[in-house]
Amino acid sequence: MTVAGNHAVPQAAAAAGLDAESAEWLDALGGTGPRRESALARLHEMLVRIARGEVGRRGPRLRITGPELEDLAYQAAADALLAITGKLGQFRGESRFTTWAYKFVVFEVSAKIGRHFWRHPGVPLDAGDWDRLPGRFGFDPAREAEWRDLLAALRRAVDEELTPRQRAVFVAIVLNDVPLDALVIELASSRNAIYKMLFDARRKLRAALAANGYLCDDSSRRS
Amino acid sequence: MNGWSALDRFLRTDPRDVGCAQAMDMLHVYVELVAAGAPAEQRYPGIAAHLSACGPCGEDFEGLLAAVHGGGH
User: Fold this and answer.
1) Which one, out of A104, A155, A202, B48, has a CA that is 20 to 30 A from the CA of B25?
2) CB distance A206–B21 less than 8 Å?
3) Size of interface A-B (CB pairs under 8 A)
4) Contact (Cβ atoms closer than 8 angstroms) between residue A17 and residue A92
5) Where are the domains positioned within chain A?
6) Is the Cβ of A154 closer than 8 Å to some Cβ of chain B?
């Protein structure tokens, strides 16, 4: 495996009183020659192990099995290794080096699972399946008379209070059950941006339902 | 939990929520605090609020915590 050298080992991190193991990782990965190659091989092996553990942990909830999961773990580890070596200079020594490094592989697993979602097309992004909403929140069908007006009010608020972009995000995630990370890829956006849109949509919808007496108005409390 | 409270809980937002970018930037620090039994929620309430509301970030938190507990060794 060949990874471009990165000699920008953070002096601040090195001077920040790192634990011995983290300092050793930084020193070896920031160096050259066989010692660096050996450190890269060890790091890659660890990343593969973490990636396998992570896809195994998430696997039962995914539509991914067997060799595909193994491929996903290896790709995540390889991409994480590239990211880590490219960002070595950003390690600030706030945690052990390995914890910081594991974060990259966990993120890569998330991103790859998000991409994998679209291998099974058939999820409409524009039309929401409102019939699924009662089940999504556990409303008892036998007591529909009690919640029918609430969900009708929610639907009105989605149509009238949200921006088109907020509505699209709400419909995809809440009604069509599209994972947020998959929506990030479909909309060429970021997790932070999509989350913020959904956050603002939730706040608006709750305010609308509270204003109409469907939910408790706790605006005097933190909401 | 019935439908009303589940919907209410989903729609309720916490102004302390720092969002994905900030939470993920500090996730390794937060996870080490949790793994060490330190009061991470008190030290970083905005990250704690975010992780309890954001499914994907919560999943990453659980994954990193499992990695730290399991170790790569």
Assistant:
1) A202
2) no
3) 124
4) no
5) 11-117, 130-211
6) yes
Q: In a mutagenesis test of the B interface, which of A84, A137, A155 is the best target, namely the one with the most B β-carbons within 10 Å?
A: A137
Distance in angstroms (rounded) separating the CA atoms of residues A213 and B57? 32
Complex prediction ipTM: 0.92
Query: Which residues of A are less than 8 Å from B3 in CB distance?
Result: 134, 137-140, 147
Tens of pLDDT, residue by residue, chain A (223 residues): 444 444 444 455 555 678 999 999 999 999 999 999 999 999 999 999 999 999 999 877 777 778 888 999 999 999 999 999 999 999 999 999 999 999 999 999 999 998 888 877 666 666 677 888 899 899 999 888 889 999 999 999 999 999 999 999 999 999 988 999 999 999 999 999 999 999 999 999 999 999 999 988 765 444 3
Q: Note the pTM of the prediction, 2 decimals.
A: 0.87
Contact status of B36 with chain A (Cβ, < 8 Å): no
Q: Minimal Cα–Cα distance from A7 to chain B, Å?
A: 23
Residue A161: phi and psi, rounded to 5, are: -100, -25
- Residue B15 distance to chain A (closest CA, Å): 7
The neighbour count for residue A103, using CB atoms within 10 Å, is 27
Task: Note which residues in 39-58 of chain A have CB less than 8 A from chain B.
Answer: 46-47, 49-50, 53-54, 57-58
Two tokens, residue A160: 């009238």
Give the separation between CA A214 and CA A11, rounded to whole angstroms. 57
Cβ(A109)–Cβ(A76) below 8 Å = yes
Q: Which fold has domain A130-211?
A: Arc Repressor Mutant, subunit A (1.10.10)
Cα separations in angstroms, A32 against A2, A26, A83, A86, A194: 12, 12, 18, 15, 41
